[in-house]
Amino acid sequence: WAVYHDDVDMTGLLVRSGANVNAENRYGVPPLSTASTNGNATIVGLLLDAGADPNETLEGGETVLMIAARTGSLEVVELLLAKDADPNAVERREQTALMWAAAEGHTPVVETLIDAGADVQAKLRSGFTPMFFAVREGHIEVALTLLEAGVDVNEVLRLQRERGTSPLLMAVRNGHFELAVALIDPFPESIRLGAELIAGAMAAVCAGIVLFLRFPAVFVRLWEGLAHWLPVRVRRRGGQLLENAATALSALKSPGMLLVMLAYSLLKWLSSGAMVWLSLLAFDTRISLPVSMIVIAVSAVALTVPSAPGFFGAMQAAYVFALLPFGVSREIALAASVLALVFPWLTVTLFGGVCFAATGLRYREVRAQAEQVRG
User: Fewer CB within 10 Å, N side or C side of the chain?
Assistant: First the structure.
């Protein structure tokens, strides 16, 4: 009772009088556990000096250190560790002191436990690690501390219900967007630099097209001036290509046609983004629409590189490159990219087959007609 009421003087008197510091109440709770719950470092020190067991456990296996980690009393945690409390002890649900501290957002306690040798990769049966506990509750400082300690930011849960969930995805699901940005921080320079280069290149191309539409003759003369050292045949061919391009793009001068093309492009991009989203959803992995659009943008760049028929290889590389920073595993990114390639091909092929059959034509007839045309 003296410990329960935080009575330091009475606790000291009882300890000096020889009271049993490891005695338990009818619920199996020793004085040290109660003092740790209260966060009273003075009483904890008195009990430890009098021989209280720093590794005492409750009925469910919860240690005194876990209690102190949960309440967030750094001084109590340090006292217990100084008396050789086990930082990696697990209770009945396999939860550790570090998991408790991470879940409650006690960054100083997390740092102290890590310094004492706490396992930052310890897992529950569900696959939850200290990182997942911190991310679920939105504790940014704790998450960054765990990252500095070597936690893999791309680790994913593999349970059926949460399969494929990464810390980043969990942060987004729970609305912790500032934390999500912080988790991406290990990759910021590469991602930002690549995005700036692509955006700059696209802006330059768009500006060039606008100027070309406005002053096509200037571009033709510029070509003739710069290509004077080329053979006449090549110069003429280049000039013809520029003139043809100006004619083909002249439709964009019409505001109505421009709006139609922009609307079509937007619809195409949105449908492609939806396809990426659905392909990942097939593997129990959810991403946002902006992330889907990033995948499409990276894929568009990748498809300009020579690749195998059907863009196999280039598409897979694009998906992995675009999705890894957002916490999607390499395996799931590869599987989704294959699905995104095969499903449209399969549906178009089946639809074409149905249309072909509906016309009443036969393959032999079509082939014979083609040979006649070639002949």
Answer: C
User: pLDDT tens across 239-285, in order?
Assistant: 888 888 877 777 666 667 767 877 888 888 888 888 888 888 888 78
How many Å apart are CA 72 and CA 186, to the nearest integer? 28
Residues 69, 74, 77: CA angle, nearest 5 degrees: 60
> Alpha-carbon Rg of the chain, whole angstroms?
33
Q: CB-side exposure of 247: number of CA atoms within 13 Å? A: 6
Q: Are residues 58 and 89 in contact, defined by beta-carbon separation less than 8 angstroms?
A: no
Long-range contacts of 12-18 (CB under 8 A, 24+ apart): 12/46, 15/46, 15/47, 15/50
| Cα distance between residue 210 and residue 290, in whole Å | 27
Angle at 173 between CA 169 and CA 178, to 5 degrees: 80
Annotate 303-318 with DSSP letters as a single string.
TTS--SGGGTTHHHHH
Residue whose tokens read 């050292």: 229
Q: Dump pLDDT digits (tens) for 96-134.
A: 989 989 988 888 899 989 988 888 888 887 778 889 889
Among 293, 291, 294, CA closest to 270 = 293
Tokens read off for 61: 């296996």
List the structure tokens of 110. 């997390």
Q: Could you tell me if residue 176 is left (phi over 0), alpha (psi between -120 and 50 degrees) or otherwise beta? A: beta
pLDDT of 233-247, one tens digit each? Answer: 888 888 888 888 877
